[in-house]
Design a protein that fits this description.
- Its EC number is 3.6.3.-.
- The chain has about 70 residues and is mainly alpha-helical.
- The chain contains 2 helices and 2 strands.
- It has one domain (about 10-65).
- It has helices at about 10-15, 60-65, and strands at about 30, 30-35.
- Strand 1 (about 30) and strand 2 (about 30-35) form a beta hairpin.
- It is flat and about 40 Å long.
- The mean pLDDT is about 85.
């Protein structure tokens, strides 16, 4: 996705990932509404530009953050 600063790129990604609720309308992913789906249960992920690893956690624990079944 390309656009100038302030065009809404980050806002759109935050809506899709579930970090922001839509002000109106429906968010469809693969034809299914996901307005009420929590971020961890959506069929998408968001990788942030900044490196935000927790130094006190192992690599495995850092990767599994946000997923209750990742360590199983």
């Amino acid at each position: 996705m390309l656009g100038p600063s302030g065009a809404g790129k980050s806002t759109l990604l935050n809506l899709i990932a579930g970090f922001l609720p839509p002000a109106s309308g429906s968010l469809l992913i693969n034809g299914e509404a996901h307005n009420a789906t929590p971020p961890a249960q959506r069929p998408v992920s968001m990788l942030f530009q900044e490196n935000n690893l927790f130094n006190h956690l192992t690599i495995r624990q850092n990767i599994s953050l946000g997923s209750t079944q990742a360590l199983n």
